[in-house]
Write a structure and sequence with these properties.
heterodimer, A: about 350 residues, alpha/beta, ten-stranded mixed beta sheet, about 40% helix, globular, B: about 500 residues, mainly alpha
Chain lengths: ~350, ~500
C-alpha cells in the first residue's frame, strides 16, 4: 500500500515540477525581466506579442515575460485589484474609454511622443501625457458578401429585415460595444441617440460580453451582421483565403478605436519599458502589430502599399476625446435601463 | 469535539469568499432594486422553464429507459448516454448547440433550452429509477389484471409520481437558478440573471459590496428552496428495487428515439467544424504542435490536483458524517457566484510562480463540492446511517466507524465524483482565466483562440480537451478506485 501511495506521489510531484520549471525557465537568473501586461489575443502564439518579444530580446539583453488578462476589459480591473503585486512594467491594450479610469486609479509615468510622425487620423490622440497609441481600428458592421442590398446608413439597420439578426456587444463589458453606443450618441445627439438605441434592441441578436463571442456568433451563422472592425474581412482573406465577408461603409462617419500603451509608476524595469514602446512604434514593430493584430499602424507610411491602405481612407470621426469615467457610467446606466425595457 | 471543530473549519472554508469580501468591502452598497428585480425575474423564469422542460423531456426519455430492466447492460449504456450532457463541461454543449441550431434564440428562452438539454438526461435516469422503485410491482399487477394504459397512468403512475416530479423539478430549478456559464453566453445580454449581474458588478464597476449583497440574497433564496426540497425528501419513502419488472404498460420506446435524436444532434453540431474543414484540422495541429505538450501538462496538473482535492474533501465529509446541521448546511448551501469566488482568491493569495496551480483547484473545489454532495454523495452517506447507528450503539468510535463502515462502501462513489470534477477542471477556462497570469491549459488556449477570430480552431482544440478529459476521467477513476480499494483492504 505504502509503495502505491509513494508511486502516485512521485509521479504527481514530477509532473508538477516539470510544469513549474518550464515556467521558471522564462526568467533565467541574473537577466533582467520585463513584465508586460496585455490581453490574451495580444500575447498568444498568433498575436503580435511573441514576435515583438523575440525582436526585443535580440537587443535588450533581457527577458520579456507576458502577464495575460483575458481581454482589455479585465486589464484595469486586475491592475486595480493587484496593483504593484502584479509586477507589471508595461500595460498594453487600453482604449480611449479606459484612460480616465486608468489615470484615476493608478499612477503612470510620463511618455514623450514628440518625434513620432503619425497618420492624420491619429494626431489628435497623441496629446496624452501618460499613454501613447500604438494602433487603431475603424469600427463598422461586417456582413457576408452576398448580392443583396446592404444597409447604407444607421437608420437602414432598423429595417425589419434585420430584426434579431445583428450581433452586438454589451457596452459595459466590451470596448467595441461602448464604441457603438458612444458613436450613435455622438451622431444623433443624446435624446435621439437613446431612442435609436431603444429601437436597436429589437434588431440585436444578442449583446455578447466580448467582441470575440459576438464575432463567433456571426461566423457560426447565428447572426447576419456583427459590429466589428473594418479590417475583419481582411483577416479571412489573408488567413483563410475566404472572400465571403465584407465591411459596410455607411453614410455616417465611422468611429475609431485607439489602443494605448502605458508605464505604471511602480514599474521596476522602467527603462526597458520605454525601449519596448520604442520598438512598438518602430517600423518593424508597427508592421508586426498591423499584420498580427489586424489593426492600422499609427506610424505614417507603414501601411502604404499594403491591403490596409485603402481601408484607412473611409470617412471617420477623427476628433479624439477621452470621456470621463462618470460620463461613461451615466451613459451605461441609461443603456442598462433601455435594455430592461424602460423608455428612454 | 475535534470532529465538530473540523466541521466548523470546513464550513468556514466554504463560506470564505463571503466572509472575506464582507470583511474587505462591507455592506454599504447602493443597489438598484429595478435592476435586481429584473435579474431576479430572469433567473426565476429561466430556472422554472428549465425545470419544466427537463421534467417533460426527462419523463419521456425515462419511459424509454423502462423498456429495459434496471441493471441490464443496454440500460446501463443508455443511462451513461443520458448523463453525458450533464457530466461534460458546459462549453461543449454550448458549442454544439450554437453550431447545430442556426439563429438560436438568445435570452431567457435560449438559457432554458440549453439547461434543458444539459439536465433532461439526469432527470430521466432519476425518474426511471424512482418509477421502478415506487410503482414497479403495482404497474405489473395492473397489467396482469388487464387495466388500460390510461387507467394505469391516472390511477397509479401520476398520483405516485407527483411528489417525485415536484422534488426533481425543485432540484433542477436550484441548479439552473445559480448557473453562470450558460446565461453568460446564451443570455445574450438580454437575459441577465443574478449570477451574471454579480459578474457584471465586479467586472464593470468594481461594485464589490453590491456584488456580495446580491450573491448573499441569491444564496438565501436558493437556501430556502433547498430547505423546501429537503423537507419534501424527508417525507418521501424510499422504495426497494425488487428485480426485473415488466413495465410494458408505461414504457415508451419513443423516449429512446428522443434521447438518440437529441444526442445525435448535439454530436453532429459539435463535429460540424471538423468535417467542414478537415484539412484545416490537420494544419492547425501541425501549427500548434510544439505548444501542446506544456499546455497538456498544465491541464493534467490542474485536473489531477482538482480530482485529488475533491477526493480528500469528500473523504473528509464522510469522516465528519453524520451531523444534522452539517448535512443541512451542505445540502442547502450553494457555492458563491463564480466571479465572486475567483476575485476573492485573486485578491487574497499571490498570483505569481506556482500559486495558480494551487489556487485554481482550490477555487474549483469550493465551487463544486456542494453540487457534488447534492448530486449523489448525500444519498450514499444517508444509506449508511442505520449502520452508523448500530455501530455507535455497540460502542464503536467515529474513527473506527469511518474505517470499517463508511470507507469501504463509499470510496467508489468518492472516486467517481472526483473523476467527474477532474473532467470539469479539464474544461475550465473561466476560473483559470481570472486566476492565472498566463495561458496554462488547453481549455485556456481554446478561450484565447476564440478571442482572436479563430473560432474553428477553438472548436478543434476543444476536441483535444474532450479527449484528454475522458482520459483523465478514466485515469482518475481507475487510480482512485485502486487507491481506495487498497486503503480499504489495508484497514481490515
Amino acid at each position: 500500500m505504502k509503495h502505491f501511495v509513494f508511486f502516485i506521489a512521485v509521479v504527481f510531484s514530477l509532473l508538477f515540477l516539470a510544469v513549474v520549471n518550464r515556467n521558471d525557465d522564462r526568467s533565467s537568473m541574473g537577466t533582467p525581466t520585463l513584465r508586460v501586461f496585455a490581453y490574451s489575443s495580444f500575447t498568444n502564439k498568433w498575436g503580435p506579442g511573441p514576435l515583438l518579444k523575440a525582436a526585443f530580446e535580440k537587443t535588450c539583453e533581457c527577458k520579456v515575460e507576458f502577464i495575460e488578462g483575458s481581454d482589455s476589459g479585465i486589464l484595469l480591473q486586475r491592475l486595480k485589484i493587484e496593483g504593484e503585486s502584479l509586477g507589471a512594467d508595461l500595460v498594453i491594450g487600453l482604449d480611449q474609454f479606459d484612460l480616465d479610469k486608468a489615470q484615476s486609479e493608478q499612477q503612470w509615468r510620463k511618455i514623450s511622443t514628440e518625434e513620432l510622425k503619425v497618420y492624420p487620423q491619429v494626431r489628435s490622440a497623441l496629446g496624452q501625457k501618460y499613454f501613447i497609441p500604438y494602433d487603431w481600428g475603424v469600427l463598422t458592421f461586417v456582413g457576408h458578401s452576398t448580392k443583396e442590398r446592404k444597409p447604407q446608413s444607421l437608420d437602414e439597420l432598423l429595417d425589419p429585415l434585420y430584426e434579431g439578426k445583428i450581433a452586438l456587444q454589451d457596452p459595459r463589458t466590451s470596448s467595441p460595444g461602448l464604441q457603438f453606443v458612444a458613436w450613435v450618441l455622438k451622431l444623433k445627439g443624446e435624446e435621439e441617440g437613446f431612442r435609436y438605441l431603444a429601437k436597436m434592441m429589437k434588431q440585436a441578436h444578442s449583446f455578447s460580453p466580448t467582441w470575440s463571442s459576438s464575432y463567433g456568433l456571426f461566423t457560426g451563422g447565428q447572426a447576419r451582421m456583427v459590429y466589428s472592425y473594418i479590417t475583419s474581412p481582411l483577416y479571412h482573406q489573408v488567413e483563410e483565403k475566404n472572400h465571403g465577408y465584407m465591411a459596410l461603409t455607411l453614410n455616417e462617419p465611422l468611429p475609431i478605436q485607439y489602443e494605448f500603451v502605458g508605464i505604471p509608476e511602480f514599474c521596476r524595469r522602467c527603462e526597458l519599458s520605454e525601449k519596448f514602446i520604442n520598438l512598438m512604434l518602430s517600423d518593424e514593430g508597427q508592421k508586426i502589430l498591423m499584420t498580427k493584430n489586424y489593426m492600422f499602424p499609427v506610424k505614417e507610411g507603414v501601411a502604404d502599399h499594403t491591403d490596409y491602405a485603402p481601408l484607412m481612407n473611409v470617412k471617420v470621426f477623427d476628433h479624439f476625446e477621452v470621456p470621463s469615467s462618470e460620463e461613461v457610467d451615466r451613459i451605461l446606466r441609461k443603456w442598462s435601463d433601455i435594455r430592461r425595457g424602460d423608455q428612454p | 469535539m475535534i470532529r465538530e471543530t473540523l466541521r466548523v473549519v470546513f464550513t468556514v472554508y466554504l463560506l470564505f469568499p463571503f466572509i472575506f469580501l464582507f470583511y474587505q468591502f462591507g455592506w454599504g452598497a447602493q443597489i438598484s432594486w429595478a435592476e435586481l428585480w429584473w435579474a431576479f425575474k430572469n433567473s426565476f423564469y429561466q430556472a422554472f422553464a428549465s425545470a419544466v422542460g427537463s421534467l417533460l423531456l426527462g419523463l419521456w426519455v425515462a419511459l424509454g429507459l423502462l423498456k429495459f430492466s434496471s441493471g441490464a447492460r443496454v440500460r446501463r449504456f443508455l443511462e451513461a448516454l443520458c448523463l453525458t450532457p450533464n457530466f461534460l463541461p458546459p462549453l461543449f454543449i454550448l458549442l454544439a448547440v450554437l453550431s447545430a441550431v442556426p439563429s438560436f434564440p438568445m435570452g431567457v428562452s435560449g438559457i432554458a433550452i440549453v439547461h434543458t438539454l444539459i439536465n433532461f438526461g439526469l432527470v430521466a435516469v432519476m425518474l426511471a429509477r424512482r418509477m421502478e422503485e415506487q410503482m414497479g410491482r403495482l404497474v405489473e399487477v395492473s397489467f396482469v389484471l388487464g387495466a388500460s394504459r390510461l387507467k394505469t397512468w391516472s390511477r397509479i403512475v401520476l398520483p405516485l409520481l407527483k411528489g417525485d416530479l415536484l422534488s426533481l423539478g425543485l432540484f433542477v430549478f436550484i441548479i439552473c437558478f445559480g448557473s453562470f456559464s450558460v446565461p453568460l453566453i446564451v443570455g445574450g445580454g438580454k437575459g441577465t440573471t443574478l449570477e451574471v449581474l454579480i459578474y457584471e458588478k465586479i467586472r464593470l464597476s468594481s461594485e464589490w459590496s453590491g456584488a456580495v449583497m446580491i450573491a448573499a440574497l441569491q444564496s438565501l433564496f436558493i437556501f430556502s428552496f433547498a430547505f423546501i426540497l429537503m423537507q419534501r425528501e424527508k417525507g418521501q419513502k424510499k422504495g426497494i428495487f425488487e428485480g426485473p419488472l415488466h413495465l410494458k404498460l408505461i414504457a415508451a420506446p419513443s423516449g429512446l428515439a428522443v434521447l438518440l435524436v437529441l444526442l445525435a444532434g448535439l454530436i453532429a453540431g459539435y463535429m460540424k467544424p471538423f468535417f467542414s474543414d478537415f484539412s484545416g484540422v490537420i494544419r492547425f495541429y501541425q501549427d500548434i504542435g510544439g505548444d501542446l505538450l506544456p499546455l497538456l501538462m498544465g491541464t493534467l496538473v490542474i485536473s489531477l490536483m482538482t480530482g485529488g482535492l475533491v477526493f480528500m474533501a469528500l473523504s473528509f465529509i464522510a469522516y465528519l458524517w453524520p451531523s444534522y446541521w452539517f448535512s443541512r448546511f451542505l445540502q442547502s448551501y450553494l457555492a458563491p457566484s463564480t466571479a465572486l469566488a475567483c476575485f476573492a482568491f485573486l485578491v487574497v493569495v499571490p498570483n505569481g510562480g506556482a500559486w495558480p496551480y494551487f489556487k485554481i483547484p482550490i477555487t474549483l473545489l469550493l465551487l463544486n463540492i456542494t453540487g457534488l454532495f447534492r448530486l449523489s454523495f448525500r444519498s450514499t452517506l444517508e444509506d449508511l446511517n442505520r449502520q452508523y447507528e448500530i455501530a455507535w450503539l455497540m460502542g464503536a468510535k467515529p474513527g473506527q466507524i469511518f474505517k470499517a463502515i463508511y470507507w469501504p462502501q463509499v470510496y467508489f462513489s468518492i472516486a467517481a465524483l472526483s473523476a467527474l470534477c477532474a473532467i470539469w477542471a479539464c474544461g475550465d477556462y473561466a476560473v483559470s482565466r481570472i486566476l492565472a497570469p498566463r495561458t496554462l491549459s488547453l481549455a485556456m488556449m481554446t478561450d484565447t483562440l476564440m478571442s482572436g477570430y479563430r473560432i474553428n480552431q477553438a472548436v478543434m482544440l476543444s476536441g483535444l480537451v474532450l479527449v484528454v478529459g475522458v482520459l483523465i476521467f478514466v485515469g482518475v477513476l481507475g487510480g482512485l478506485y485502486v487507491l481506495g480499494q487498497r486503503l480499504a483492504s489495508s484497514k481490515r
